[in-house]
Amino acid sequence: MNGALLVAGTTSDAGKSVLTAGLCRWLVRQGVRVAPFKAQNMSLNSMVTADGAEIGRAQAMQAQAARIEPTAHMNPVLLKPGSDRRSQVVLLGRPVADVDALEYRDHKQRLRDVALESLRILRDQYDVVICEGAGSPAEINLRDGDIANMGLARAAGLPVLVVGDIDRGGVFAALYGTVALLEPADQALVAGFVINKFRGAMDLLEPGLRQLENLTGRPTYGVLPWLDGAQIDAEDSLSLNAPPPDAGTPHGAETLRVAVVRLPRISNFTDIDALACEPGVAIRYATTPGELADADLVVLPGSRATVSDLAWLRARGIADEIVRRAHRGAPVLGVCGGYQMLAEEIVDEVESGAGRVDGLGLLPVRVEFAPGKTLGRPTGTAYGHPVSAYEIHHGVATVRDGARPFLDGCRVGSVWGTTWHGALENDGFRRAFLREVADVAGRDFTPAPDVSFGALREARLDALGDLVERHLDTAALWRLIERGAPAGLPVVPPGGP
Length: 497
Fold this sequence. Notes:
Layout: E1 3-9, H1 16-29, E2 34-37, E3 40-42, E4 46-48, E5 54-56, H2 57-65, E6 77-81, E7 86-91, E8 94-100, H3 101-105, H4 108-125, E9 128-132, H5 150-156, E10 160-165, H6 171-180, H7 184-187, E11 190-198, H8 202-216, E12 220-225, E13 256-261, E14 266-267, H9 273-276, E15 281-286, E16 297-300, E17 302-303, H10 306-316, H11 318-327, E18 332-335, H12 337-341, E19 345-348, E20 355-358, E21 365-376, E22 379-382, E23 385-388, E24 391-399, E25 404-406, E26 409-412, E27 415-418, H13 427-441, H14 453-471, H15 474-483
Parallel strand pairs: 1-9, 1-10, 2-9, 3-6, 10-11, 11-12, 13-15, 13-16, 16-18, 18-27, 19-21
Antiparallel strand pairs: 4-5, 6-7, 7-8, 14-17, 19-20, 21-24, 22-23, 25-26, 26-27
């Protein structure tokens, strides 16, 4: 067998990543050797592979769904926005350029060639490759030179499923409009639809499904019900617009309140997922000083634009509030870019070009940005527990006297800083850290002794596989993967040029 499928979406955050993961888990449970693929990803959530390549975090999660080790070929092109106009281009796991939208067009042919070669390599190695599109295939202003959606589908002959989020409203218009805006040769590869995040009566939905098929000549392969916690390892901060997860019943007497500063260029906010899995930990994303007031722990997460986001902290008054809290002994944790902001000084001629900038001065650290990016999978020990993590940064931190070591970073009083992402996914360390935070904050909170973040993630991936198996027409999906898009699919008016 040598099959493939492209999962496209009506919008960002429609459910492409989740459906791709669910398809991978369903297939691997059928004994199929399957791999995920995303030709081009724009995301500030990334991960480091075992051989030191940086790829989108969602593709690493999808590889876990497929029960394989992630590689750079699963996400050959990664764009990491540093501002509204410029992005770092990561090619096969290594940064190669910083470009604006116009400069990026000059790289398109090279990137297309690399993406197609990576797909070819994966198809040689696996029975099936489940490809994920980017944004929407109907972004007609970007169709010329597209390498992630219909450009990829046309070049590789991939059948396409379009997934729409019914919870947003307007799903039928979005599905129909997506196909109608495509040129006829692109439409010929769109085999049908999947509706995501449905909560309601199927009897009321089914007439719309029939009308959609009559209008487009394409079936709906199934309707996925709403599933709490399905959005794992999200690609962008759109997912942060959803309500925070229920903290659940605390294991101790009180809830531990965690405020995560929602920076404009927040990155690797998946670090917080492991905190959210703990019963009795309530997560809030904060953009004002007042939202930090009653927090037991404030987290400054990673950032793709440390100096710019630090200026935002100051302009919003959040920086002053964090400093006041730290001086009162209230717990603060900085991770990667957030750690850099806690330093005494930052010297950046690389990312922002700002030169020397004062940090918040809460840790005796000097940060200097280097042209080369540090990518690694470090291991260590903290609170007597083993810790494995990953690191992705240009800033190099030098710790001066007066601080205690902490996960390749440091600690002073109730302020912790580390360059390591993913450390909180280590269960023993996370519980020990939260116990100390609770003690410092004066909270009667005890972490649950039996919560395994790895087991919870596996359970979520299994739940996604169950959704596919129970709610999609898997026999039709098999035919689509094996044979490609059906011949003779009608053109949906108005069509493209």
